[in-house]
Amino acid sequence: MNRMEFMAELERLLADMPEDERQAAVQYYADYFADAGEENEQDVIRELGSPEKVAESIKADYYGTEFNEANYEHKDYMEKYGQRSSGGTDSSRADSAAGTGQSGTGSKNSAGENVAGDAEKRKPWTSNTLKIILVIVIAVMLWPASLGIALAVLGIAAALIFFFAGLVIAAAAVMIAGGVTVIVGIVAAFAVPPVALVTAGIGLVLFVIGLIATVGTVKLCIIVYPAMLRGFVNLCRRPFYGKAV
Amino acid sequence: MVFNTGAALLDAIVLAVVSHEDEGTYGYKITQDVRRVIDVSESTLYPVLRRLQKDECLEVYDRQFDGRNRRYYKVTSRGMAQLGLYKSEWKTYIQKINEIFEGGVTA
């Protein structure tokens, strides 16, 4: 993986964040690569781990969710990172910092209680595993309905994909037909010149219309297919990341 | 290093590193400077910088460098106040630790 691929992947993974958040993060890492220099590119990529890990660290801080270091190769990440990601808002952190200062001057007991209280607070009330289990349970209970919905969604998706592919094929066919007409016209030119000229002319017009239509529909596909895919993926991700605030 | 660097300490270190540059400094340099002291991974600092920025402890501006815009970070007056608080907290903290390490248990 090179820097370009890394950045493209990171940008894609941050697609569901608000625009300014994504831009700030992308600019930061683009700067980072540029400042590290080309000769250190591979070192930086290795050290950063993967685009997934970087994206997760950004989102964890932004959404205040738990950053699960077990998913990534850096076992000691959380230790290095501190317990920031699940620590709640900044004001509460500032409070706890002040609280630590006071308890430091107070008795040892109160300091101990503080630590225990913090540990309880940090425990998230929900988790992705729980959500996945819930989704599975609901899917099983509503099995016939969910099967029907899944098939319907698949059917609509397939219909859309084939509809646009059909447009491309139709346009290409018009283009080919035009080309063939031109050739027929040229061949006939030796026998009946006027008719041949008309035939070749019509063929040329057809060919050009076909060409424009082909280019147009291919471009349409380029726009529509990724958008469909992204929409579908976002739909599936929504239950796990929640809506952007 | 066997000791953890907690969130507040990491904030304090980043603020201190940035405050050393009057003209402000940029992400890569901050990371290198912090990594000279503590062992953090390269992806650790962006969320810290972003949050300090949102808390108005840091401000950012873009400056031309090498034909591109580079984002610079600078400590605000609020950030300086926060850093002052961290420094005094740290002083009492290490004092107490030192007392225990060197002078045994104190009352």
UniProtKB/TrEMBL annotation, chain A:
<keyword id="KW-0812">Transmembrane</keyword>
<dbReference type="Pfam" id="PF22564">
    <property type="entry name" value="HAAS"/>
</dbReference>
<feature type="region of interest" description="Disordered">
    <location>
        <begin position="81"/>
        <end position="120"/>
    </location>
</feature>
<feature type="transmembrane region" description="Helical">
    <location>
        <begin position="169"/>
        <end position="192"/>
    </location>
</feature>
<keyword id="KW-1133">Transmembrane helix</keyword>
<feature type="transmembrane region" description="Helical">
    <location>
        <begin position="204"/>
        <end position="225"/>
    </location>
</feature>
<keyword id="KW-0472">Membrane</keyword>
<protein>
    <submittedName>
        <fullName>DUF1700 domain-containing protein</fullName>
    </submittedName>
</protein>
<feature type="transmembrane region" description="Helical">
    <location>
        <begin position="132"/>
        <end position="163"/>
    </location>
</feature>
Automatic annotation (TrEMBL), chain B:
<dbReference type="InterPro" id="IPR005149">
    <property type="entry name" value="Tscrpt_reg_PadR_N"/>
</dbReference>
<feature type="domain" description="Transcription regulator PadR N-terminal">
    <location>
        <begin position="14"/>
        <end position="83"/>
    </location>
</feature>
<protein>
    <submittedName>
        <fullName>PadR family transcriptional regulator</fullName>
    </submittedName>
</protein>
<dbReference type="InterPro" id="IPR052509">
    <property type="entry name" value="Metal_resp_DNA-bind_regulator"/>
</dbReference>
<dbReference type="Pfam" id="PF03551">
    <property type="entry name" value="PadR"/>
</dbReference>
<dbReference type="InterPro" id="IPR036390">
    <property type="entry name" value="WH_DNA-bd_sf"/>
</dbReference>
<dbReference type="InterPro" id="IPR036388">
    <property type="entry name" value="WH-like_DNA-bd_sf"/>
</dbReference>
